[in-house]
Design goal:
- The termini are far apart.
- With about 290 residues, the chain is α/β, with parallel strands linked by helices.
- The protein is about 40% helix and about 20% strand.
- A hairpin with a 5-residue loop joins strand 1 and strand 2.
- It contains 11 helices and 12 strands.
- The chain has an 8-stranded mixed β-barrel with strand order 1-2-6-7-8-9-10-11, surrounded by 6 helices. It has a two-stranded antiparallel sheet with strand order 4-5.
- The structure holds ligand C2E and magnesium ion (3 copies).
- The site of one magnesium ion has 5 residues, from strand 8.
Length: about 290
């Protein structure tokens, strides 16, 4: 696929290409080099998050990509686990936080300020991260309440008390915390009890089944009710169809994001993507779930 593209375009990343070009240890050492380099090989894309009632954009989520010189744009699932395993998640996470606030910290939509959501590995949640968040907030002047940290439980937590301490310190600062990919992996009810959580993100695995799987629909509904019961907001991920939008809206799910409105786009294309979100029809309240 990559070789069919013309000169000046980047290769289309595939796992086959990666395997053909570099092995795992090479990619790891290249990740190290990329992070040490002065010219960043990383880039953030942004996806709008929409209020399901009004259809208005309320936030953007930053999603990191690695602009690899040979492989092209490498998706985060291919290198975040490696970064977590090697400790490189700390410098990478620091860069992401800084860049996201720089790119999106003063974004507005229709004159309203938007929330900025940044993904955080649970392994990043320590005292140092709290200091870093405090520094970024101070130097940027971003209102703490406009920053959302989306925590993914991608690895088992060794020191749960340290994570709880960090989350409580972040809550003290006024930063919002979301639990990402809720219902999958290690993200469990246990963490809902232990962590101060403001937002639950319904994993797109469940959203994808709306309209075809009564089980997935029941799971979405239960998560919305659960969130209400613990006083958290809900955000649905991976909303692709008007039917999914209508169903989630009728459940009372607060926010949504997905290809229905926009894929993640580079910062320079964000204003156009935000404007296009306004064109997506809001389902009528009478549409059946
Ligand atoms: P996530 O935070 O749950 O992000 C949602 C993923 O779903 C993104 O994949 C996004 O591009 C994709 N997506 C959004 N809308 C749709 C849709 O309508 N349909 C489908 N099929 N997919 C959709 P992406 O960008 O590849 O990111 C994957 C994961 O990598 C993220 O999942 C997050 O856990 C992690 N990640 C991304 N950026 C960072 C980061 O800066 N730091 C950390 N620690 N993890 C990150
Ligand atoms: Mg996320
Ligand atoms: Mg997610
Ligand atoms: Mg995810």
């Amino acid at each position: 696929e990559a070789k069919t593209r013309g000169p000046g375009t980047v290769a289309l990343y595939t796992q086959e290409l990666e395997a053909a070009v570099v092995g795992r240890t090479t990619l790891e050492s290249e990740l190290r080099t990329a992070l040490a380099g002065t010219v960043s090989q990383f880039v953030l894309h942004y996806q709008p998050v929409v209020d399901l009632r009004s259809g208005e954009v309320v936030a953007v989520e930053s999603l990191v990509r690695w602009q690899h010189p040979v492989l092209g744009l490498v998706p985060p699932d291919r290198f975040i686990p490696m970064a977590e395993a090697t400790g490189l998640i700390h410098p990478l996470g620091g860069w992401v936080l800084d860049q996201a606030v720089r790119d999106a910290g003063n974004l507005t939509y229709d004159g309203r300020e938007l929330y900025v959501a940044v993904n955080f590995s649970v392994l990043q949640l320590n005292d140092e991260a709290v200091l870093q968040v405090r520094q970024v907030l101070e130097s940027s002047g971003l209102t703490p309440g406009r920053l959302i940290l989306e925590v993914t439980e991608s690895a088992l937590v060794q020191d749960e008390d340290a994570v709880v301490r960090a989350l409580e310190a972040l809550a003290q600062l006024g930063v919002h915390v979301a639990i990402d990919d809720f219902g999958t992996g290690y993200s469990s009810l246990h963490y809902l009890r232990r962590y101060p959580i403001n937002i639950i993100k319904i994993d797109r695995e469940f959203v994808a089944g709306i309209g075809t799987s009564v089980d997935d629909e029941a799971i979405c509904e239960s998560i919305v009710h659960l969130a209400e019961a613990v006083g958290a907001m809900t955000v649905a991920e991976g909303v692709e169809t008007p039917e999914q939008y209508a169903f989630l809206r009728s459940l009372g799910c607060h926010h949504g994001q997905g290809f229905l409105w926009s894929p993640p786009v580079p910062a320079e294309r964000l204003p156009a993507a935000l404007a296009a979100c306004g064109e997506v029809p809001v389902p009528s309240t009478t549409s059946p779930p």
